[in-house]
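To: structure desk
From: M.T.
Subject: fold request, one chain
Message: Could you run this one when you get a chance? Sequence is below, nothing fancy, just the single chain.
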Amino acid sequence: MDVKAASNGVSTIEDRILRITGYYGYYPGYSSHQRGDGLSNRTENINPDNNVKTRCQTCISAFFKIFWGFLVILSVSSSWVGTTQIVKVTYKNFHCPFFMTWFSTNWNIMFFPVYYSGHLASAQEKQTLIKKIRECSRIFGEEGLTLRLFLKRTAPFSILWTLTNYLYLLALKKLTATDVSALFCCNKAFVFLLSWIVLKDKFMGVRIVAAIMAITGIVMMAYADGFHGDSIIGVALVVGSASTSALYKVLFKMFLGSANFGEAAYFISTLGFFNLIFISSAPVILYFTKVEYWSSFSALPWGYLCGVAGLWLAFNILVNVGVVLTYPILISIGTVLSVPGNAAVDLMKHEVIFSMVRLTATTIICIGFLLMLLPEEWDEITLRFINRLKEKKNEDQTEDTTESSVHTRSRSRANGTISIPLA
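Reply: Done. Structure tokens follow.
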């Protein structure tokens, strides 16, 4: 019994000294394990090359993810701000929102060719175009894309896509770019509510609070001009656009599930083909009924139209590429950063004066959007983080106490006095 107590006491003291001195590769019980293990274990503990390499690789991977995330945030917010502002400029001489929507959606056809070009440039094992198309078309099922599935699955999503963009462009005629981009952020709250009701997703109190904040911001934005005039119509149009966007995302998750980058590129390209084939009649009808009329094709602002379509395509590509390159939450942050971006452009270029009600509503909506980004286990993660801080604080206090006791013993030995620790 005395031998065990003595050996444990010595082991504990040695462990504490090793911890205080910061011995490389130390872990609790190091000294006692060293006595029982052979020379091979001692060599592994002293030279943990594999652990160092793994940590370095993890740090490098995290660094590149954050670096790419920073670039994606800037690119996503810049493309969305650019799209919104160019639409506002185009409206000065050309007011045909449905034609702009149809023209921009046709550019989605180029999504899959851009993806396949990237595949040829970066992949080590390159696949032929036909093989890649067959692989990506599995998003529609094991049989791939058939005419029946093309009409059945693509038609509703193409209509929702067109409605989302058309209502968004209509709202830009009534409201400032800042108001429209802020209100459109409410689609995150609508996605949660629809997923909770339709998909039976996990209930989260914090997201209910975020949804309430989004609705509060919508009401305040409508109240800014007294519930009349262009303001209430513009707010209704943006809320409609955010609602159809949320419905698109929930139905996509319900019927098609999750998709990788190639499948998403293929699906969006099929939306462009459906738009070109079946929805081309709509702008023709609007032209001959003079709802959306222009004198000649040469009078069309092709530069602005191509700018809107190109930036819209870039935004969709960046959103899907960003999921591969970095953390998905950073893409959502890039979207919400378009609100201050549009505010800066409106303030400096268009000299827009923001009322206190509008600023408050915009802030509430953005805070609600950020609350939506919290993970499902956010409360458990927070509690774990707090417990780790407490444990670290207790360890630091224990180390300080042990260090002071070791200094006291060293001083007493120097004076010729030996202190015997009690068992």
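Reply (cont.): The CA atoms of residues 222 and 232 lie 5 Å apart. Let me know if you need anything else for the meeting.
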